[in-house]
Write a structure and sequence with these properties.
The chain has about 200 residues and is an all-alpha fold. Helices cover about 75% and strands about 0% of the residues. The N and C termini lie far apart (about 105 Å).
Length: about 200
């Protein structure tokens, strides 16, 4: 009889604990964190797609006579740096790692933007079907990166709001749910790159 009574008490306590556990937002935190991870994977997919396009783009541009070598070097170096900076879903709460990742990606974006601007001075490139296809794919990928970064930020905002709200913040502290970092706008990203390139002078040299 005593054993049955003890089991009944334990069962009741378990039910109460489970209800309170759920009510304090643990399951919600898990769901929101998985949403952040899913959004992050989409960002990574688009960044990887861009990185995969670059070798063919550089190879095509190299076939153009007298193309600015410094621009190509900038792109290849920036792509190399991107490959060295890895960021896992577990690192999304690390401000330093996140900043390093964004800085490397933004530098590659800047280098690619400069390459496309300079390419306007080469009629043979503008008439090259392979280059035009790669340019179109790259521009489309840049747009998708922008879209996925915005969606990621929106998902992070929802998650961070929950982490900082009562009573979920109690569960967040107990189980180590930390706020995630946001992508930030790069200074001057709304302006076209300043390219000092005198094509007519170059043709006469």
């Amino acid at each position: 009889m005593k054993t049955k009574f003890t089991k009944a008490i334990l069962f009741t306590v378990l039910i109460i604990f489970t209800a309170n556990f759920y009510g304090c937002g643990y399951n919600t935190l898990v769901t929101l964190q998985e949403n952040v991870n899913s959004a992050w994977s989409q960002v990574e997919n688009q960044y990887q797609r861009r990185a995969d396009l670059i070798p063919n783009l550089v190879k095509t541009v190299q076939g153009s006579a007298d193309f600015e070598k410094s621009v190509l070097t900038e792109v290849t170096d920036a792509r190399s740096r991107v490959g060295q900076v890895k960021l896992s879903a577990e690192d999304l709460s690390d401000p330093q790692k996140f900043e390093q990742f964004q800085k490397a990606q933004d530098q590659l974006s800047s280098a690619l933007s400069r390459l496309l601007v300079v390419s306007e001075n080469y009629p043979q490139l503008k008439a090259n079907e392979s280059f035009l296809q790669l340019q179109s794919q790259l521009e489309g990928t840049e747009n998708r990166i922008s879209v996925e970064r915005r969606r990621f930020n929106e998902t992070v905002q929802t998650y961070n709001t929950e982490v900082r709200s009562f009573p979920a913040l109690i569960m967040a502290k107990i189980f180590g749910f930390k706020e995630k970092e946001y992508f930030k706008s790069t200074a001057g990203s709304d302006k076209a790159p300043d390219v000092n390139f005198d094509f007519e002078k170059k043709k006469t040299n």
